[in-house]
UniProtKB/TrEMBL annotation:
Keywords: Signal. This is Bacterial repeat domain-containing protein. Residues 64-110 form the Bacterial repeat domain. It comes from the Bacteria. PROSITE patterns: PROKAR_LIPOPROTEIN (PS51257). InterPro entries: Bacterial_rp_domain, InlB-like_B-rpt. Residues 1-20 form the signal peptide. The keyword Signal applies. Coiled coil: none annotated.
């Protein structure tokens, strides 16, 4: 199994020791920032620094030369100094002359085994990707960051271009596993669920995450479990999250600023699955019918009179088209697409990646079970994206699904077969998702 470096977060344990020695009684302040803070001790006993999990005194006054020593615990590595100590690079010791106030950051990384990654959604420009992965055998909520804007058109493996691979904490000791299903267009808020099961096969507690501070935000739900936050969006500074609360059966629920704002209690059961980036419309399954809800007018509109699936739908960013799962079985590839007052039955797997409308044509991106595909409403045909993007695919690579498309229609993400590792892995394809179609 390939190992990758990631930032250790609250759920990881790390002991790293920094010791400092220098002249006493100086008038210049040295500040130390350990990264990560949790489980990290930065100490200079004589000077009064005790920073990180061992304390909060992270600065002291010095004169002359101060020598810092970084010692990571077993299983971790010292990644190097930054700030005013950047000239020391990755050396574990660093001498710094205190001739002015200075700040040094000591950076540590850890190696953990990540497999079976999956991305459910991406931010507007594709730079923030959210999903899940098996971390040392347990399914954890994940965030990846890439420099999407600097990538040239072409095919990439996510593991090779990720600038950060972050394992999020659920903040719930009884529900340490989980999945991130959605992210706001600006990439600052994620949403999903926490689970007590190592494979996160059952959702229990609805969660949001502040992706700037990486802190979990528990959402009001039913303590007996079955709660999910499927998608999230912003309208101005307000955060809207759609999903379900499960008191006795799934109740369609919308949270606003992390409090329950709307619930449809008039139906026997239902789920909100997706929301437009401006938080104006949400798609929902209500008693096995396909609906759209207008958040501004508090109005429901039925789109599809009968659907066989309960657990997935995708709405286009402009709210003009919706794809609903038409089966609860992963072995039956079938969805129903509503666009322009028409309903189309499409043989596509239930986990639709994205819906777009362009020049009067609705496009649905996903999988037919074996290949990544793109369906279009004008011809009602399914196009194999391995053929469409054959010129940029490495030899032996097979695109198997599309799970997300960025709002700027530049970044596509999904799963592909990697012949080098003989595994299915997450890919990033930079280019025009409508390549090969007429304007």
């Amino acid at each position: 199994m390939r190992k990758v470096f990631i930032l250790a977060l609250l759920m990881l344990t790390l002991s790293a020791f920094l010791t400092a020695c220098g002249g006493g009684g100086g008038s210049y302040t040295l500040s130390i920032n350990p990264t990560p803070t949790n489980g990290t001790v930065v100490s200079a006993t004589a000077a009064g620094i005790n920073c990180g999990s061992g304390g909060s005194a992270c600065s002291a006054s010095f004169s002359g030369t101060v020598v810092l020593t970084a010692t990571p615990d077993s299983g971790y590595t010292f990644a190097g100094w930054t700030g005013d100590c950047s000239s020391c690079g990755t050396s574990t010791t660093c001498s710094i002359n205190m001739d002015a106030n200075k700040t040094c950051s000591a950076n540590f990384t850890t190696t953990i085994t990540i497999t079976n990654a999956y991305v459910y959604q991406v931010s507007g420009d594709g730079s923030v990707l959210v999903g899940r992965a098996s971390v040392s055998g347990n399914t954890k909520p994940m965030v990846w960051r890439i420099n999407a804007g600097s990538l040239s058109p072409g095919f990439y493996w996510l593991a090779n271009i990720a600038t950060q691979t972050i394992v999020l904490s659920t903040g719930l000791s009884s529900y340490p596993y989980g999945v991130v299903l959605g992210v706001t267009a600006d990439g600052t808020i994620g949403c999903g669920y926490g689970s007590p099961y190592t494979d996160a096969s059952w959702a229990d507690r609805a969660l949001a995450w502040d992706l700037t501070t990486l802190q979990p935000i528990p959402l009001p739900d039913d303590p007996n479990g079955g709660n999910v936050a499927y998608a999230c969006a912003k309208s101005g500074s307000d955060v809207y999250i759609v999903g379900r609360v499960y008191p006795s059966s799934p109740t369609p629920t919308i949270w606003k600023n992390y409090n329950i704002w709307h619930q449809n209690t008039s139906v026997a059961y239902g789920i909100f699955h997706d929301i437009t980036p401006d938080a104006s419309k949400a798609s929902a399954q209500l008693t096995y019918q396909g609906w759209v809800y207008d958040l501004n007018s508090n109005n429901y509109t039925q789109l599809v009179s009968s659907i066989g699936g309960a657990y997935w739908s995708r709405i286009s960013p402009d709210g003009q088209a919706v794809a609903f799962s038409d089966s609860n079985s992963s072995t039956i590839a079938r969805i129903k697409v509503w666009y322009g007052g028409n309903v189309y039955t499409v043989n596509m797997s239930i986990g639709v990646g994205a819906v777009r409308v362009r020049s009067g044509v609705a496009y649905v991106f996903g999988s037919d079970g074996s290949n990544a595909v793109r369906w279009r409403s004008d011809t009602t045909t399914m196009e194999n994206l391995n053929t469409v993007f054959a010129s940029v695919l490495p030899s032996g690579v097979t695109l198997k699904s599309i799970s997300a498309v960025s709002l700027d229609n530049r970044v596509m993400v999904g799963v592909a077969y990697n012949p080098t590792t003989n595994r299915d892995e997450v890919f990033v394809l930079v280019g025009d998702p409508f390549q090969g179609t007429s304007p």
